[in-house]
Design brief:
The structure holds two protein chains of two kinds. Chain A is an all-alpha fold. Helices cover about 80% and strands about 0% of the residues of chain A. The chains are: A mainly alpha, B alpha/beta.
């Protein structure tokens, strides 16, 4: 694992991408810091951070696009996958290298509250809670980028897909407000989703009976639950979509709350993405 | 050492490797021989655990590649078809990275890297970026990576592709010298390479093992099947009768070729017996003028071609197939072979 970690880290820091990533984050921090703190002397650094969470939409795809897509294209994954190192360790090495690169601008960001404290009283607790939350949010975004990079061998596709997904997650509040909160419409939406899932399953396994059975059982279960307790569905779509609301979970940190829920949430996102990445690499060997 | 049982790889409807089984023993050089697309690389990728098999098992030193991948992979050094190089690293950095991946102890690492770089003669290049190296040197760096850590089995997928003639000879000598300590499996579509380097040849065609033997035995097999082709006038039954009187004749086929006067006769003889003179006198005695006579030794190359083409022309009789192969002897692929073997 350390071998992969060291190689990745060196590769980021000897090429443009790593510095581009660091540059963008520091640039935006600088702009917002001068706007909020230097110009209007606002004492809360956490506002600066919460205003710039969109920086990940641009930076993360730059950094993660080549992580696995490039290996696959250059066939260097043959070296990694035939060496006596498990896939999990390879992915962890790569992911930790990304986190380390991200930790560099974060370490610099940590000085901002100290600078501010020279000019007045500020709450270090809430400022550094926000920094921690910001770091976790970035790490979760990086994990998503790594996973998407494992799906394709084209860096461009990986970058665009990562951007699209991160953007969708970023806009999740807006997206979920498109959907009605009514129980009936939620139930119908879930019903359509089950139908779509059944069609996808059919296209994969080519067995009409099994996919039809899955579809019928799913729809029947939905109908039964709806008849027994229709309020169960109220706002269901929003609940499901909130799972993907990455930056939404940052709000608590930005308000100075040390949110254990949020920490668990981000760590789970990271764990799920790393797990899915490993699975996608392992699965590719079977195709 | 390596045991491959019933290996199958399917890509959708296409079967790339079809129930392949063989065993690899210690201390020998094995050659996978087969035309392009025969399934050599796929087989090697499955042995090294890069891709998984659809069916069947591979075990290395008793470790199943899918069940105990780390133990199994530790015994293998692999140079894939395209050397897996990071272009943004220098040769030395790359070697250090490969050594770390293979978990070579720190105290041995430096000495081992230097030794291996010396073996493949890339010491002069150690501070160059890999992207600035020529194809031949890249291939050598890939080879160095495979040798590094001195694994028990070294698997090389077309190790001499893209090298110049001098480099090919150097690499071949290097591979031969590896035999002392390692088992080597190499693949090639160049017959001369395999017969020059390998102790044992596995010929693969359409994902199936069509022959496996030592190069000597394969040549003997070939020498045993000496044929003489004749074009002669006379009465068909007469000719057959007289020719069969000659000691050493095993089989005769006579047929008429359109547009040519006389009979087209193929006489197969016993091993290493030259009966051309006897045929001449016999035919002269019986007033059957010989228009043409040709002695044909079946070379290893022809056996290779025949074995790898057999799949497409399965139902045909062996004799007629050989005759049919005659006029189209210098096929495109063979031209390539000859060209390569002259290097």
């Amino acid at each position: 694992m350390t071998a992969v970690y060291k190689r990745e880290l060196r590769s980021y820091l000897t090429s443009m991408t790593g510095y581009l990533f660091i540059f963008f984050i520091l640039l935006l921090t600088g702009i917002y810091f001068s706007a909020y703190q230097l110009d209007i002397a606002y004492p809360k650094f956490e506002y600066t951070l919460s205003a710039m969470t969109f920086v990940f939409l641009i930076c993360v795809p730059i950094l993660t696009m080549r992580t696995l897509a490039e290996e696959r294209k250059q066939k260097t994954d043959q070296l990694l996958l035939t060496s006596p190192v498990s896939v999990g360790k390879i992915i962890m090495g790569k992911y930790l290298a990304l986190v380390t690169v991200f930790a560099i601008p974060m370490a610099i960001i940590c000085f901002y509250p100290l600078v501010m404290s020279k000019f007045g009283d500020i709450s270090f607790g809430s400022a550094y809670t926000a920094v921690l939350g910001f770091f976790l949010l970035g790490c979760a975004n990086l994990a998503i980028g790594v996973f998407i990079s494992s799906l394709t061998e084209s860096q461009v596709i990986a970058a665009v897909l990562t951007f699209v997904f991160l953007f969708a997650f970023f806009m999740m509040n807006g997206i979920s407000s498109f959907f009605s909160e009514g129980a009936l419409s939620t139930c119908i939406t879930f019903g359509l989703l089950i139908l779509a899932a059944a069609i996808i399953i059919y296209s994969m396994i080519k067995n009409f009976l099994i996919s039809a059975l899955i579809c019928v059982i799913g729809e029947a279960a939905l109908a039964v639950v709806y008849v027994i307790n229709s309020s169960f569905f109220a706002g269901g779509i929003q609940k499901v979509l909130q799972i993907f609301n990455l930056s939404g979970h940052f709000d608590n940190f930005a308000n100075g709350i040390f949110d254990i829920n949020g920490i668990v949430y981000y760590l789970s996102v990271i764990a799920v993405c790393v797990f899915l990445t490993v699975q996608s690499i392992v699965k590719r060997r079977w195709n | 050492m390596i045991e491959v049982k019933n290996l199958v790889k399917k890509y959708g409807d296409h079967t790339a490797v079809d129930h392949l089984s063989f065993q690899i023993e210690k201390g020998k050089i094995y050659g996978f021989l087969g035309p392009n697309g025969a399934g050599k690389s796929t087989t090697m990728n499955m042995i090294t655990g890069y891709i998984a098999s659809t069916e069947g098992t591979v075990s290395i030193d008793g470790h199943d590649i899918l069940e105990e991948p780390e133990k199994a992979k530790k015994c293998i050094g692999y140079l894939p078809e395209q050397p897996p190089l990071y272009f943004d690293m220098t040769v030395l950095e790359y070697m250090k990275f490969a050594a770390d991946l293979k978990k070579i102890p720190k105290d041995k690492k430096k000495a081992m890297i230097e030794e291996v770089m010396d073996m493949v003669k890339i010491t002069d290049m150690k501070n160059r970026l890999i992207k600035n190296l020529s194809k031949g040197y890249r291939q050598r760096v890939g080879l160095a990576q495979a040798i590094l850590g001195y694994p028990e089995v070294i698997i090389l997928d077309e190790p001499t592709v893209g090298l110049d003639p001098k480099q090919i000879i150097e690499i071949r000598d290097l591979i031969k010298s590896l035999k002392k300590k390692h088992t080597v499996i190499l693949s090639s579509h160049i017959l001369s390479e395999v017969s020059a380097v390998c102790d044992y040849v596995l010929i693969i065609s359409h994902g199936k093992l069509v022959a496996s033997d030592t190069p000597d035995n394969l040549s003997k097999l070939a020498a045993g099947a000496n044929n003489i082709n004749l074009l002669a006038k006379g009465e068909k039954d007469n000719i057959r009768q007289h020719l069969l009187e000659i000691p050493g004749v095993k089989e005769i086929t006579i047929d008429k070729k359109t547009g040519v006067e006389g009979w087209n006769i193929t006489v197969s003889t016993e091993e290493n017996r030259d009966i051309r003179e006897e045929i001449f006198y016999k035919m002269a005695e019986n007033h059957c003028p010989i228009l043409e006579m040709q002695s044909r030794k079946v070379s290893l190359e022809e056996i290779f071609l025949e074995l790898t083409e057999e799949d497409q022309t399965t139902s045909e009789d062996k004799n007629t197939e050989q005759e049919e192969a005659d006029p189209q002897e210098p096929t495109e692929s063979e031209k390539g072979e000859n060209h390569d073997s002259s290097l």
